[in-house]
Structure formats: C-alpha cells, structure tokens
C-alpha cells in the first residue's frame, strides 16, 4: 500500500506542512487559516449584533463599531468567501478529479498560500497597529477612505496581497485543467465542480488585477495625494466606485460559482443517478462568468452616474440571474426518479438551494431600478448578500466539508451531530437575516451604530437569531473537530460517489494515483443500463 | 411591512416589491415543495432502482424562458417608474441640501437656511444635493427616494409629498463615526401652514426647540440659523453633532486640549475661543468637527450674549 499524504515526510512536523508543495496539504493549510479567520469574523458579527440590542451605545463606541463592520467584511470576503471553495476544495480535489498528480505549478501554489497568510496577517495587524482599525466599510469608498486617519493603507495593502494569491490560484487552475487531464477525460467528462472552478479561475485572473491597481491608487493617493479620486484635487470619486465594482461584482461569482459546482457533485451522489442537464449546468457557469463581468454598476444606481448607464446595467442584471435559475431547476430535476438518501452533506446541499434562491430573488428585486432606490444601502442589501454569501457559499462550504471530510482526513464524523446542528443553524439564520430584509424594507440604513425606535423590535429579533445560529455553527464545527481527532477510519468511498477522488484511498496516497487512470465514461453514470 | 407611504412614489415602488415578492414566494414554495416531494417519493427505500435521465431540451428551454420573461417584466416596471423619479416637474420648488460630517442643512430659494426640511403637501420639491466633505447618502424612506451626495458634483431627488406629518431623513453612505447620527426630519405641512413658515419668520409651527424671544435674541437666533450653527447644536439640551447651547454658559466643561483632558469653566472668554478657534479645545466626547465660521465682532457679541441668556443655573450637560 502506498503512503498517504498525511503521514510524516521526514522534515519535521512544521516544515512538512509549511514547505509542502502537495496540493492536498496546501488545501488543508488554507482550510486551517480560513477556519480561524472565519471564527474571528463570526465573533465580530456577534458583537455587532449585541451592540444593536439596545438603542444608544450598548457595549462599544461608534468608532469601534465602524472598525468592526469593516474588519468583519474584509476578513469574511477576502479571507473566507472568495478563497473558500477554490482554495480548499479546489486545491485538494481539482487534480484528483481530473486524474492528475498535482496542479501545473505546485510551487506557485505554495507561494499563493504565503501571499494569503501575509495578507491575512496584515489585515489583522491593521486592527491593532498605529492609528487603529479602518472604519470605511470593506468597500473603502473615496474620499472618506482618503481622509480618515485610520489604518486604511495597511488594510488595503492586505487586500492587494490577498488578490495576488487569488490570481496565482486562478492561473494554476486554468493551466491544470487545460494540460493535466488524464487520458479520456474530455471536457464533457469533467466533473461539474471542475467546470465551476475553471470558470471561476478566469474571473480571478481577469478581474482581480483591476482591484489590485485600484487599491494601489488609493494607497498612492493617501500617501502622495496624486488626485485621481479626490474631488478636492479634481479627481472623481465615482470613478473609484466603477473600478472597485469591476472587480468586486465578478468576485461575487468567484464566491458563488464554485459553491454551485460543489452542489452539483453532492446531489447526484446522494440521488444515485446522473445529473439532469449536465451541459446546461456546465455552460451556465461560463455564462455567469461572462455576463457577471458586465453588471458591476448595479451597485451604483443612486450614484448619479447617468440614466443610460442605469438602464443598461439594470437590464443586464436581470439577465445574469437567468443562468442561476437554470441551475436551480436542473438540481431539482436531478432528484426526479433518483434514489435519494438524506445524509448530512445532502441536507446541507438542499438547504443551499433554498437559501441561495432567496438570496438570488432578493437580488433580482434590487435590479428593478425604482425599487433599488429604496432598498439601496439599507439592511435589505445586508440581508440579501448574507443569504447569498452565507446561505449560499457558506452552506455549500459546510456541505462540501461534510461530503469530502472522510476523503480529506480519512476519518468519519458523527452523522447524528451533523444533523442536530442543522435546525439551530437554519432557524437562527433565517431569523437573523430575515429580520434584516424586513428592516431594510422599512428603510434602516446599513453600517449604523445606532437605530431609530421604529427599527428596534426587528433588531432585537435579529440579535436573538444570531445567538441561535452561532449555537448551530459551534455544534457543527465541534462535530467535525471531534471527527478529526477521534473519528473512526473512513472507507475509500463512503457515499458511493463515482468521480475519481472516490477511487483512491482515504486519505489519498501521496501522489494521488499509482498509475494515471484512463477515463471512459461520464462523471455520474450510475445506471448506464437505465437511461432515458 | 412597508414604512409610511408619504409620497406619490411610495405606492408605485411598493407595488413593484409586492408583485416580485409574490412571484418569488410562489417560485420558492414551488421549488421547495417539489424538492421535498422528490426526496420523499424517490427515497432509497421507496425507489431503490434510480434512472439516469440525462436531461430534456424542452424543459431546459421552458425554464430558461419563464424566468427571462418574468425578469424582463420586472425590469420594465422598475425602469419606467425610475424614469418618473428622475424627471422633476418644472414647477418644483428647489431646495439646496448640504451634507457635511454629520449634519444636513437646507437652503430655500430666498436664501434662508434651516436644519429641518419643511415642504407643502402635494407640492413637488426638487432637492439639489451637495457635500462639503465626503460621500453621504440622502434618503427619505417614507418617500422612497434616495441619492448619493457627492463632493464636487451636484445630484438631486424630487418628490411630491402626499401625507402630512414628520418623517426621517437618514444618511445612507458611511461617512465617519457619527454616520448613524446624521439625521434630520422632513415636515410635511398644509399649504397655508407652509406659507406661514416660509414667508413670515424663521419659526416653524409647533417646533419644540424654539421659544418666544426678544428682538436681540431673534437677531442672534437668525445668525445661529443662517450660519448653520443649529445644524450641529440645539437649543433644547439634546446633544447633536456638538453639545447643546442650553445651559452651556457657566457650566463646567471637560475638554481635551493638546491631548490632555482638563476641566474648565464655560465663561465668556471660553465661548469666544470655542467659536473663533474651534480646534483649541475639544469638548470631551465630541468629534473635532466644528468648522471655523467667521463672524464679525458685533455678530460674535450678539451670539455670545444670546448663549449667555441660555444659561441654566443647575444645567447638566452630558
Ligand atoms: Cu453621511
């Protein structure tokens, strides 16, 4: 039997990890850092909710609150949701799923992790060093971000490095998919998760440099007053918003498309039948990546950018929602005449469909110009993107973790506890973010330290929801941690999956495959005899 | 579910929300019901022999077209009603709105400044929005209007108020520590009440913060309101961006001066210093955002005299 990738490799425990170029170990390195950062940001979120429990100051000052929502946003977005599925599961699984021994550039892969942790360390440092944590919101809108005395430059530089990490991962995935597929692994035999990673990688490579340059300009403007964005020097603050969203809107799809890919793996496995509409799902990923690059200004309908631009961006925004709807219908149809077993990953994946749909539909509402005016910059937006980012990407991340956990660690977790964590998580989630949607509808602006009396009841409800939800989260993570330490040994294919990762042992051997496999069928051909 | 419907836009915007909400709810409940049904009906126990159905072109086309059509309808209504929101009638009353960290002020066509907005029922108003410093967002939820306020350029909103009453104005773009206190009110008055307010004097009907005053007092009050002091300060004891003027004179103030906290008596010299050199001493607990607003010697005298008249023997400031 081959040595597995988790066994010591003789350089000492620490070096074995931090100098490893093995894509599987790098995936776990990301997972470790991301889990830690995720909990930091969750904690900030909980504290912010406690602050909203009463009117007036509750447990902190306005300055602290502003720092908290900024850092919560920066950490969650740049260090959890954007890298989330690609960096952990993409790194771990992409090579195995296409029958390769590693990614194309293993050392660049490790380098990207270093960019990631240095960026992360700087982001955390910006909290404590010098002038205090940035207080601009994660969007760093000028000219406020140019004027504020807080650590904006450092935080922005951190985001810049994190962007580099993302670009390098993207380049690696594109090359790997093009060059390293096993014999017989044609494009239409690729698992849908690979399709999703591939589409995402293009967005990462094309869009991220824009934000990189924009953030550098902010630093230059702060340090040397070059006057690109500052209206006092003849610059244009709306230009900044365009440049920011040219990246940050496609980044939304970097966050969600891989999540959709993971769902497309999980559903056929537990329904034990092929996916419905393989090509529709695969190409809709590409369509989302392409169309998604053309809708950035729907974040700016009230910025006075001009009526023609408003009209065009509104129309495109509605169109980009169509491919997502197609996916939802295809997933649903995949359950038809399946043979479904509701294991934990499946439960979380189906929950994803519901929560993501709520997020998507509330997003579509904001595409309607007249309605957008009322909802823009309110809690409705906050509720909406938490449904997408957390209900969507977050739940997909949990589903993926529950699904591939036995493969990654070679151990099993307690299924009953994974089920038990679901009700508090789901109920708390909906109370928390559902209240936010209602608050926004009533006009409660986002990023407010304090609130007016008419918003009080719903704020209290949201805070109560946050406590229920965090209980569920804690149960889920404890379950996984216990599985990691004490779980019984996992078989190679615990769920009956058909894609290549299930053909190797759990945890996978050091080099994935003893001999590169030859692929001779579609990824989810469960019942080759019974097709229609 | 909705806030007050206080302008002609309100119900139009709400109906878009309601229609798309109902459509969304039907779709969501439908999908959820189908999923639950399939999971139960085709469970491993009920259906041990699954079938590999690859797809169905007709279905794909149908469920691509249905959302597309639905979305285009939503786009259409959102777009046309938005056109209305962007087209103020020619006879609108134009009020200039200035946003600054962290207060709003409103200037009427006759040049008078006010720290709250007063408008007449069913009379269209166009607000021209300007910022003195960073981005702000001007929103009146009850009217369903909102616009970013951008330094260096002018943006606008317009509305026709349809409900008497007082509604909240909130800043919607993060602009610093007191962002959530960058609030004001819009008062919708009957046409004749509005005329009284607009043509007679600076006193709004039933406004709490103003009381009867002498001629000298009313000159000073006019100054305070003209020079926008009242955007940040009140006369009724509630702190706003800055401390209230009520009970200020003769009280003991904790101030931060050159990085050190000291206590000092708010005497006449202190008042003059605070106005002529606002950065010298910063009242503890407030941001250093008081601008230097030039006053002539005689204006300063009258303002200081007025502030003295607001002294309260046992006033407690925060
Ligand atoms: Cu503001």
CATH hierarchy class name of chain A: Mainly Alpha
Please outline the major beta sheet of chain B: 5 strands, mixed
Q: What integer value in Å does the Rg of chain B equal?
A: 28 Å
Q: What is the percentage of strand-forming residues of chain B? A: 15-25%
Mean pLDDT of chain B: 85
CATH architecture descriptor name of chain A: Up-down Bundle
Tertiary shape of chain B? elongated
What kind of sheet is the major sheet of chain A?
none
* CA gyration radius of chain A, whole angstroms: 23 Å
Overall geometry of chain A: globular
pLDDT below 50 for ≥5 consecutive residues: which ranges of chain B?
A: 205-212
Reading the helices and strands of chain B in chain order gives HHEEEEEEEEEEHHHEEHEH
Can you identify the CATH superfamily of chain A? Cytochrome c oxidase-like, subunit I domain
What fraction of residues of chain A sit in β-strands? under 5%
How many beta strands in the DSSP annotation of chain B? 13
Helix count of chain A?
17
How would you characterize this protein structure?
The complex is a heterodimer of chains A (532) and B (318). Chain A has 532 residues and is an all-alpha fold. Chain A has a single domain (13-503), classed as Cytochrome c oxidase-like, subunit I domain (Cytochrome C Oxidase, Chain A, Up-down Bundle). Helices cover 66% and strands 0% of the residues of chain A. Chain A has helices spanning 13-18, 23-51, 62-81, 84-97, 106-128, 144-147, 152-179, 192-224, 237-271, 278-291, 307-334, 344-367, 369-375, 379-409, 415-420, 422-441, 456-486. The longest helix of chain A has 35 residues, at 237-271. Chain A is globular, with a radius of gyration of 23 Å. Chain A starts with 12 loop residues before the first helix and ends in a 46-residue tail after the last helix. Chain B has three domains: 10-85, Helix Hairpins, CATH 1.10.287; 93-198, Immunoglobulin-like (Sandwich), CATH 2.60.40; 208-317, Cytochrome c-like domain (Cytochrome Bc1 Complex, Chain D, domain 2, Orthogonal Bundle). Chain B contains seven helices and 13 strands. Chain B has helices spanning 8-41, 57-85, 191-200, 215-226, 229-232, 268-276, 297-309; strands at residues 93-100, 103-107, 113-114, 117-120, 125-131, 136-140, 145-149, 155-159, 165-171, 183-189, 252-257, 260-265, 282-283. In chain B, the strands form three sheets. In chain B, strands 3-2-1-5-8 form a five-stranded mixed beta sheet. In chain B, a hairpin with a 2-residue loop joins strand 11 and strand 12 (260-265). Chain B is elongated, with a radius of gyration of 28 Å. At the A-B interface, helix 3, helix 9, helix 10, helix 11 and helix 12 of A face helix 1, helix 2, strand 7 and strand 9 of B. The complex binds copper (II) ion. Residues 136, 171, 173, 175, 179, 182 of chain B line the site of copper (II) ion (CU).
């Amino acid at each position: 039997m081959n040595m597995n990738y988790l066994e010591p490799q003789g350089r000492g425990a620490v070096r074995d990890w931090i100098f490893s170029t093995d894509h599987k170990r790098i995936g776990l390195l990301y997972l470790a850092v991301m889990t830690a950062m995720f909990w930091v940001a969750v904690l900030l979120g909980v504290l912010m909710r406690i602050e909203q429990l009463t009117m007036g100051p509750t447990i902190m000052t306005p300055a602290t609150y502003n720092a908290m929502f900024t850092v919560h946003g920066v950490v969650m977005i740049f260090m959890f949701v954007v890298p989330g599925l690609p960096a952990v599961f993409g790194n771990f699984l992409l090579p195995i799923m296409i029958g390769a021994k590693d990614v194309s550039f293993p050392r660049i892969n490790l380098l990207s992790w270093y960019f990631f942790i240095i960026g992360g360390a700087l982001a955390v440092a910006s909290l404590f060093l010098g002038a205090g944590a940035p207080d601009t919101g994660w969007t760093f809108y000028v000219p406020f971000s140019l004027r504020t005395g807080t650590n904006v430059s450092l935080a922005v530089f951190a985001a810049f490095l994190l962007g580099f990490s993302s670009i390098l991962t993207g380049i690696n995935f594109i090359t790997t998919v093009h060059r390293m597929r096993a014999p017989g692994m044609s494009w239409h035999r690729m698992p849908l998760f690979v399709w999703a990673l591939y589409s995402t990688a293009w967005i990462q490579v094309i869009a991220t440099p824009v934000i990189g340059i924009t953030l550098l300009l902010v630093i230059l403007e702060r340090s040397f007053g070059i006057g690109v964005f500052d209206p006092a020097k003849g610059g244009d603050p709306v230009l900044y918003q365009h440049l920011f969203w040219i990246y940050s809107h496609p980044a939304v799809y970097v966050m969600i498309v891989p999540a959709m890919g993971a769902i497309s793996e999980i559903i056929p496995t537990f329904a034990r039948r092929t996916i419905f509409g393989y090509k529709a799902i695969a190409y809709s990923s590409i369509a989302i990546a392409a169309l998604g690059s053309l809708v950035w200004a729907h974040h700016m309908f009230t910025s006075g950018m001009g009526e023609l631009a408003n009209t065009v961006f509104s129309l495109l925004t509605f169109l980009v929602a169509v491919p997502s709807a197609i996916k939802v219908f295809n997933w649903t149809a995949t359950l038809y005449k399946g043979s479904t077993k509701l294991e934990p990953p499946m439960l979380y994946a189906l929950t994803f469909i519901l929560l993501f749909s709520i997020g998507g539909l509330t997003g579509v509402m904001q595409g309607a110009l007249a309605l957008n005016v009322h909802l823009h910059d309110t809690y409705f937006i906050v509720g909406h993107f938490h449904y997408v980012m957390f209900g969507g990407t977050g739940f997909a991340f949990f589903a993926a973790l529950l699904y591939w956990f036995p493969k990654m660690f070679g151990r099993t977790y307690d299924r009953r506890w994974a089920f038990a964590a679901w009700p508090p998580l789901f109920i708390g989630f909906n109370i928390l973010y559902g209240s936010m949607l209602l608050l926004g509808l009533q006009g409660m602006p986002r990023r407010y330290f304090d609130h007016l009396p008419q918003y009080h009841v719903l704020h209290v409800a949201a805070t109560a929801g946050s406590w229920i939800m965090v209980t569920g989260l804690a149960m889920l993570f404890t379950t996984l941690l216990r599985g990691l330490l004490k779980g019984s040994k996992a078989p190679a294919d615990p769920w009956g999956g058909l894609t290549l990762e299930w053909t190797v042992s759990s945890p996978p051997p050091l080099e994935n495959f003893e001999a590169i496999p030859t692929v001779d069928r579609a990824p989810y051909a469960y019942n080759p005899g019974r097709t229609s | 579910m909705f806030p007050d419907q206080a302008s002609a836009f309100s119900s139009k915007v709400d109906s878009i929300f309601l229609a798309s909400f109902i459509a969304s709810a039907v779709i969501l409940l439908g999908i959820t019901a189908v999923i639950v049904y399939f999971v139960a009906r085709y469970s491993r126990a009920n259906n041990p022999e699954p079938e590999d159905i690859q797809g169905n072109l007709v279905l794909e086309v149908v469920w691509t077209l249905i959302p597309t059509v639905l979305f285009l309808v939503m786009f259409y209504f959102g777009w046309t009603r938005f056109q209305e929101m962007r087209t103020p009638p020619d006879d609108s009353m134009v009020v200039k709105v200035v946003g600054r960290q962290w207060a709003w002020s409103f200037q009427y066509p006759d040049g008078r400044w006010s720290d709250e907005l007063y408008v007449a029922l069913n009379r269209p108003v166009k607000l021209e929005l300007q910022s003195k410093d960073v981005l702000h967002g001007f929103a009146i939820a009850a009217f369903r209007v909102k616009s970013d306020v951008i330094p260096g350029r002018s943006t606008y909103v317009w509305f026709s108020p349809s409900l008497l009453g007082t509604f909240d104005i909130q800043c919607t773009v993060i602009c610093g520590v007191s962002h959530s206190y960058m609030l004001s009110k819009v008062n919708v008055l009957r046409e004749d009440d509005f005329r009284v307010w607009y043509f007679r004097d600076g006193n709004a009907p039933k406004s709490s913060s103003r009381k009867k005053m002498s001629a000298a007092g009313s000159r000073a009050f006019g100054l305070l309101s003209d020079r926008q002091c009242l955007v940040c300060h009140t006369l009724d004891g509630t702190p706003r961006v800055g401390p209230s003027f009520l009970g200020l004179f003769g009280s003991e103030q904790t101030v931060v001066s050159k990085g050190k906290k000291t206590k000092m008596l708010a005497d006449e010299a202190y008042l003059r210093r605070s106005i002529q050199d606002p950065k010298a001493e910063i009242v503890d607990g407030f941001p250093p955002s008081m601008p230097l607003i030039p006053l002539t010697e005689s204006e300063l005298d009258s303002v200081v005299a007025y502030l003295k008249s607001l002294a309260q023997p046992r006033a407690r400031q925060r």
